[in-house]
Amino acid sequence: METNFSSDFFLMGFSDYVGHPAFIFLIFLTVYIISLMGNTFLVALVILSPQLHSPMYIFLSNLSLVDMSLTTVVVPQMLLNMLIRNKSISFIDCIAQVYFFIAFAGVECFLLTTMAYDRYVAICKPLYYTTIMNKKLCIQMASVCWVINFVNSVLHTLLIARLSFCGSRVVQHFFCDIIPLFKLSCSDTSVNELVIFTEGSLIVALPFVVTLISYIHVIRTIINIQSAMGRKATFSTCSAHLTVVAMFYGTMIFIYFRPSSAYSPAHDKIASVLYTVLTPMLNPFIYSLRNKDVKSAFRKLIHFNILEISVRPNYQIH
User: Fold this and answer.
1) What pLDDT is recorded for position 318?
2) How many domains is the chain built from?
3) Which candidate, 61, 160, 249, 316, has a CA 20 to 30 Å from the CA of 294?
4) Global pTM?
5) Per-residue pLDDT tens over the stretch 191-249
């Protein structure tokens, strides 16, 4: 008797789209490389620059690490499938991809919420900022983001692993996502769907609500600032984060929190590209291009390295 563990899934990816596979491959490969380089740059800059050892940049470096991890869970397998005819993925690898995808996506939700809380304290309670957002609390908050979501992912993964797949194993997606796997299962998936809409809501919807409440207070405080320059300067400190929140939560809610009757493989693929491929690439640029602290830290780091090289004595071997 054939079991789940003895059979492979087949990832359709973008094979049903009209176009040149080589061109699509190069686009995704380029985006992936830029994503890795950009996020690695931000993590390294925060580590090497003492001026960036503040709560916001501690969270930002964690976000960059999550973005690199999330896109790496998805993109390499997708690129491999574009190069080979046999677009198969083993059941174990598929379940592992589900586990790490849910874990990293959840960590990103929580980190975006902690960053929103950081902006709330900085703008609405500036006199208490250094007292409330101390380094110890930041490390604890970041650790909680990681631990809770890696534990939570175990539940969803086990619920998917218990499902039976007795028919087609062609996944209408470019990675093993939970909704397409539900569609292939010949088991009752009502428990899985219930868990997504209840326990899953706590992981995604609750952080989103906390983020929303934080920014309601932030915007209210900004509006009450007397000078236009002051309002503009204050809003610029959180505009990048608002952009990322809108992109990430918008696509997540569209895909996972809607009736199953509204499922559309084509639309889900496009939406999934936004938060698994494009958002991780754009985040480093969104947070750094208009960020004076990041630009200043980068210039100082470059200047220090150039100065160090110029004053280094040249030893000659006689």
Assistant:
1) 43
2) 1
3) 249
4) 0.86
5) 888 887 787 777 877 888 899 899 899 889 888 888 878 777 777 777 778 888 888 88
Tell me the three state secondary structure of residue 71: helix
Show the domain range for 125: 4-11+19-311
DSSP state of 8: E
Rounded Cα–Cα distance for residues 131 and 141 (Å): 15
For residue 307, give the CATH number of its domain: 1.20.1070.10
Q: Which amino acid is at 16?
A: D
Nearest to 215 by CA among 188, 240, 193, 248: 240
With H, G, I as helix, E, B as strand and everything else as coil, classify residue 112: helix
Q: Are 60 and 287 a contacting pair, CB within 8 Å?
A: yes
| Per-residue pLDDT tens digits for 285-295 | 887 766 777 77
Distant-in-sequence, close-in-space partners of 235: CB < 8 Å, separation ≥ 6: 222
- Whether residue 301 lies inside any domain: the answer is yes
Return the bridge partners of 164, or none.
none
Contacts of residue 8, Cβ cutoff 8 Å, sequence gap at least 6: 88, 89, 90, 91, 169
Examine residue 318 and state whether it is found in any structural domain, yes or no. Answer: no
* Burial of 183 from C-beta contacts in 10 A (0-12 / 13-18 / 19+): middle
Cα–Cα dist 211/214, whole Å: 5
